[in-house]
Automatic annotation (TrEMBL):
Residue ranges occupied by any Protein arginine N-methyltransferase domain in the UniProt entry: 6-86
Keywords: Methyltransferase, S-adenosyl-L-methionine, Transferase
PANTHER family linked: PROTEIN ARGININE N-METHYLTRANSFERASE (PTHR11006), PROTEIN ARGININE N-METHYLTRANSFERASE 6 (PTHR11006:SF73)
Keyword Metal-binding tagged: no
Origin superkingdom: Eukaryota
SUPFAM superfamilies: S-adenosyl-L-methionine-dependent methyltransferases (SSF53335)
Gene3D superfamilies: Hnrnp arginine n-methyltransferase1 (2.70.160.11)
InterPro entries cross-referenced by the UniProt entry: Arg_MeTrfase, PRMT_dom, SAM-dependent_MTases_sf
Parts of the chain that traverse the membrane: none
Protein name (Swiss-Prot/TrEMBL): Protein arginine N-methyltransferase domain-containing protein
Amino acid sequence: MPSCGMVNGFAFWFVADFSGLPNSDINPKKAPLLFTGPDNPRTHWEQTLIYFTDPIEVEQRQTIKGSVKLSHCQRNNRFIDVRLELR
């Protein structure tokens, strides 16, 4: 196994919990969950890939730390802006 390699980006997916919908008659204990992960049944939401402008070199078993910020896109309210910062 190589001791180092390149990381070109990250994959993202989510779980949506519909128990907190306003004005909903759904019983929170029976509310549906939507799983979009690669190990779950396929949905039209799928996953998202975020590629780095420049790949980063990592060592074997190295932990990558950072943060992800999601916000509504001002140009199109159906889009989401994603900001990824690595430390």
